[in-house]
Design a protein that fits this description.
By secondary structure, this protein is α+β, with helices and mostly antiparallel strands. It has 2 domains: about 150 residues, Tetratricopeptide repeat domain (Serine Threonine Protein Phosphatase 5, Tetratricopeptide repeat, Alpha Horseshoe); about 290 residues, Outer membrane protein transport protein (OMPP1/FadL/TodX) (Porin, Beta Barrel), CATH 2.40.160.60. The chain contains 9 helices and 16 strands. The strands form 2 sheets. It has a 14-stranded antiparallel barrel. Strands 2-3 form a two-stranded antiparallel ribbon. A hairpin with a 6-residue loop joins strand 15 and strand 16. Helix 5 packs antiparallel against helix 6, helix 6 runs antiparallel to helix 7 and helix 7 runs antiparallel to helix 8.
Length: about 450
């Protein structure tokens, strides 16, 4: 059972909790009474819009706060509901309805521990038999939701194919001026722009072993093999594995994972990476999430030790459900890649990046998405051949459609475009690719 279905069922259960007298401590004024009638007749949005402009002046009135919290809960404004209902239960500790609604809001923002306590308290405060029965159902639903978030394992197999207009990420022109050599040189064919059709195989798995309500052991592994049919020199594979721990408290999760990556080109190891990734995630409510991360790693290039480096990257991200099937996300990061060899400052660079994206779900099986990334890289020294200090500006655009034809299946069609502008001509290129992939998850 998915978290969305569980929340929908629990919202329905709370409707009957609202059957017991909501406001037993003071006579309601007309505005509050009318708003409650709207909320209980399925017009929660109108009730919320009626009360929201009055919150500044009416906050602290338990009748107002209770009804405002009810309306906010029903339209998904759970963070607003929490603030209003906490005010109501502070002034009226015996307000069982406000306490039950606060439990609902707390679960929606990811704090199931507080939700359970509040619902138990509402039941103990003397809710009618019918309402107490519904609270019991709600508590059982929380049990189901918590168990579904416990130890888990998921794996996938993915097959894809497509066409890449520049598998080598190379320039178009073969004749290049190299100032240090006093003239032009002709680039080898493999250094130039090459197009190719490709096939792709991906395998992956991820798991979580829950130790207790807060601590978990997490791990993941993935393998991807890309074969370029008429340019096998650029066929590549990538293997990643990570393992670590996670700590959850209320709506926040902290994790630290050790990672290893092996990237191969034409069957030979091109780069290995070993390091640590620390991440923080804060689930504001069931519609908004923010987070931050810090990555530290050692990069090794077999046979090219002059390229060995230490990489540090830190960033932040934010995602939000925007309504009507829209989802938006964005993030920014800064990084530094410090060369380890002496006398080659041009190998290191500082980076600054931005990522944004949107997704539109048309129904339960079809969605479209778009993403845009931009990164600036400033290198640390003058290139000994081109006699300039390299600066790159890389932009990438992705457009695609995802279709779920059957349970556990996902088909994705995607168009990607990359434009890398560089002060060094051999690093200045554009690249476009189209692909279709099918993934089975189990």
């Amino acid at each position: 059972m998915t978290p969305r279905i569980l929340r929908a069922q629990m919202a329905a259960l709370l409707i009957s909790v609202c059957a017991f007298p909501p406001l037993a401590y003071a006579e309601r004024d007309a505005v509050v009474r009318d708003a409650l009638a709207l909320a209980e007749s399925g017009q929660a949005r109108q009730a919320f819009d009626m009360l929201a402009p009055l919150e500044v002046t009416r906050a602290g009135d338990p009748d107002f706060d209770t009804v405002f919290g009810i309306a906010a809960n029903q339209i998904g404004e759970h963070a607003r509901a929490v603030m209003a209902l906490e005010r109501a239960t502070t002034v009226q500790p015996g307000n069982a309805r406000a306490r039950a609604e606060l439990g609902r809001a707390m679960f929606a923002v990811g704090d199931s521990k507080s939700a359970r306590i509040l619902l138990d308290q509402a039941k103990a405060q003397g809710a009618p038999v019918e309402a107490a029965f519904t609270i019991d159902q709600f508590l059982r639903a929380i049990d189901v939701a918590e168990s579904s978030a416990r130890s888990s394992f998921q794996a996938y197999v993915e097959l894809g194919f497509g066409h890449d207009g520049n598998v080598s990420s190379g320039p178009v022109n073969a004749n290049v001026a190299v100032p240090a050599l006093g003239g032009n040189v002709t680039l080898a064919a493999n250094a130039l722009r090459r197009s190719a059709s490709f096939g792709n195989l991906g395998l992956g798995a991820a798991g979580r072993r829950v130790i207790d309500s807060r601590w978990s052991v997490i791990g993941n592994a993935s393998f991807n093999q890309r074969t370029n049919f008429n340019a096998s020199r650029f066929s590549n594979s990538q293997f990643n594995i990570g393992a670590g721990g996670a700590y959850r408290v209320d709506r926040q999760e902290y994790s630290l994972v050790a990672v290893h990556e092996d990237y191969r080109v034409d069957g030979s190891s091109n780069r290995t990476q070993n390091g640590l990734i620390g991440e923080w995630i804060y689930r504001i409510d069931n519609q908004r999430e923010m987070g931050g991360y810090l990555q530290w790693s050692k990069l090794r290039y077999p046979g090219q030790q002059v390229r060995d480096a230490t990489r540090t990257v830190g960033g932040a991200s934010y995602a939000q459900q925007l309504g009507s099937g829209w989802l938006g996300w964005g993030g920014a990061y800064i990084g530094n890649e410090s060369e380890e060899a002496a006398g080659v400052p041009q190998q290191g660079h500082a980076a600054l990046g931005l990522r944004v994206g949107v997704q539109k779900s048309f129904n339960q099986t079809l969605a479209a998405f778009a993403s845009f990334n931009h990164e600036r890289r400033n290198y640390g020294g003058t290139d000994p051949f081109f006699l300039v200090q390299r600066q790159d500006r890389q932009a990438s655009l992705g457009l695609g459609v995802t279709w779920l034809p059957a349970k556990s299946w996902r088909v994705t069609s995607q168009l990607n475009y990359i434009r890398n502008q560089s002060d060094i001509v051999i690093n200045d290129y554009n690249r476009a690719s189209v692909s279709v992939s099918a993934r089975y998850e189990f």
